[in-house]
Design a protein that fits this description.
The complex is a heterotrimer. Chain A is built from eight helices and eight strands; from the N terminus they run E-E-E-H-E-E-E-E-E-H-H-H-H-H-H-H. Chain A is an alpha/beta fold. In chain B, helix 3 crosses helix 5 and helix 5 packs antiparallel against helix 6. By secondary structure, chain B is mainly α. Helix content of chain B is 70%, strand content 0%. In chain B, 28% of the residues are buried. Chain C has four helices and no strands. The chains are: A alpha/beta, B mainly alpha, C mainly alpha. Chains in contact: A-B, A-C, B-C. Chains A and B meet through strand 7, helix 2, helix 4 and helix 8 of A and helix 2, helix 3 and helix 5 of B.
């Protein structure tokens, strides 16, 4: 484990913070932690600090970021055992002189703080329906002049923090997980060309909506107000109602 | 857009190796960074498994009934000892925690009362604390 | 547009997830909730009947025989036994399923736990019969 000191503050007001950063390169026998001491200012974010570490102390540190405002979903990390977006997490707000930084959990690791999100995306594909859809104008929207088409963004920024926080994703490779299930509910709520009944059927599975154990850690971790746990419960409510209807009321519709 | 074919790739446990960082059972029991719902999850899991263990013990103990009064009454006198009574209180705690949290999990898990579940959880735990005190008093007053 | 075929060995960390041929609605969770609610009621009755009725809080042998001589009690206790065994083994099954074993292993687990459940209830019924026929 290497220990680096940099007393030249990033911006100068100087509270020394010890960063314990997870390190792993393909071929290493096991992961380990490197320590870097940095002076941080009031507004220094975790991402600022890590970038500073990479630029000035250790250029071999691998990390990834893009938008700097929790919109692209790239810089998700576990900081002091909590899932956060590093770009908007101020070091001072962590209220600790030791900051442990690890990559998000339950994904394949590329190196250091960067994960391969292949598993994450595979969950969306596993439902077998296109959950990313072309947008239409809403019926009552006035089309602005000169615009031919637009992309409508949903809250989910696909950062993977929810899957990192979920206790079941931690142990169960087959569980669809909060992100895909939340997307499934969004597709039920607003189907457009999708068949909502098909989505409900496909997620009505022991490894779908019913594997969740109501910990709600995903919704706590989500930086983007998706509330995946709430959406899983809505899926279940609908699926349970269908089940009851099939017993008592006979087939509907 | 209609259905696309499902991407389905088989996992070979060897292929995952050190580069897939699934936390495993640590993800269930690690208390660090946990929020209220996460605590409720681990409480339910541990009390549930604990009660199962107790039930196996209970079934074995009940077999003494088949061996007649001397076997059973002998056990009853052991069951009055303070250590036993202490574990009885632990059992009641486990039952209350699991049962009352189970109410929350059932209601929320069917999509009901989701918005106020933290308040409901707190109220149920207060009820549980009261019930536990009543039970503990009863256990130690007759034991 | 179909997803491109990925050779399994090349991708690190890819996992098998259910395709739509495999999904099936499950009753496990609903049964868990129903048996759980019943357990709540029955365990409360069980505790009161066994620990708050007799002065010492514990029934000695004669107390137990007297207790089980009432057919309503027998029905209640047998119902409690069935429901708590069912709920407990469903719970154990849920914990095991949280490891994401293959569907084949999962149905094996279900079968083993079902046999275990039947065996436990049978044992309880036998024990009840032994006690009630004691004189």
């Amino acid at each position: 484990m290497d220990h680096h000191n940099d007393t030249h503050a990033t911006e100068g007001t100087g509270r020394p913070i010890r960063f314990r950063v997870f390190r792993y390169k393909q071929g290493d026998r096991a992961p380990y932690f490197d320590e870097f001491t940095l002076e941080v200012a009031e507004e220094t974010t975790v991402l600022d600090a890590l970038t500073s570490i990479r630029n000035r102390l250790d250029p071999t540190l691998i990390l990834r970021s893009s938008c700097f405002h929790a919109s692209c979903g790239t810089c998700g990390m576990r900081v002091n055992d909590r899932e956060v977006m590093a770009c908007v997490t101020k070091v001072i707000d962590l209220k600790s002189s030791v900051v442990k930084v690890e990559p998000i959990a339950n994904q394949a690791l590329v190196a250091d703080l960067v994960t391969d999100m292949v598993d994450f995306y595979a969950k969306f594909n596993a439902i077998g329906l296109a959950l990313v859809r072309d947008s239409d104008w809403l019926p009552d929207a006035a089309e602005p002049a000169g615009i031919d088409s637009y992309n409508r963004f949903e809250n989910c920024i696909e950062c993977g923090l929810c899957l990192s926080a979920c206790p079941i994703v931690a142990s169960d490779p087959r569980y669809l997980g909060p992100a895909a299930l939340a997307a499934a509910w969004r597709a039920v709520e607003e189907p457009r060309e999708l068949d909502p009944e098909a989505v409900l059927r496909l997620t009505d599975d022991p490894q779908g909506s019913w594997r969740c154990h109501v910990a709600f850690e995903c919704s706590e971790a989500c930086p983007s107000n998706v509330d995946p746990a709430g959406k899983i419960m809505l899926l279940r409510r609908r699926q349970a109602a269908e089940r009851l209807r099939s017993i008592f009321g006979g087939r509907h519709g | 857009m209609s259905e696309q074919s499902v991407e389905r790739t088989a996992v070979e446990r060897g292929a995952e190796g050190a580069s897939t960082r699934r936390r495993g059972v640590i993800g269930w029991v690690d208390p660090r960074g946990r929020r209220l719902g996460g605590w409720a999850f681990i409480l339910n899991r541990l009390t549930g498994l604990g009660i199962l263990l107790y039930l196996s013990f209970h079934l074995v103990v009940l077999s003494l009934l088949a061996r007649g009064p001397s076997a059973w009454d002998g056990f009853v006198s052991v069951a009055m000892s303070p250590v036993f009574l202490f574990f009885d209180v632990v059992l009641i705690f486990g039952l209350l925690a699991h049962g009352l949290n189970g109410i929350r999990v059932t209601l929320v898990g069917f999509g009901l009362v989701v918005d106020r579940q933290k308040a409901m959880f707190a109220a149920l735990m207060v009820l549980g604390a009261i019930a536990l005190i009543i039970a503990a008093i009863r256990i130690f007053e007759v034991g | 547009m179909p997803a491109p075929e990925q050779p399994a060995g090349d991708r690190i960390g890819t996992t098998w997830t259910p395709s739509h041929e495999d999904t099936k609605p499950t009753w496990g969770w609903i049964l868990q909730a129903v048996t759980g609610a019943l357990v709540l009621v029955l365990v409360t009755l069980h505790m009161i009947a066994n620990h708050f009725v007799v002065a010492r809080g514990l029934r000695d042998f004669q107390d137990v025989v007297a207790y089980l001589s009432n057919p309503v009690i027998v029905v209640l206790e047998v119902a409690f036994l069935v429901v708590v065994t069912w709920h407990g083994l469903l719970g154990l099954r849920a914990v095991l399923f949280d490891f994401g074993f293959s569907p084949r292993i999962e149905s094996w687990i279900t079968r083993v736990l079902s046999v275990l459940g039947v065996a436990i209830v049978a044992y309880g019924l036998w024990l009840t019969w032994v006690i009630t026929s004691y004189h």
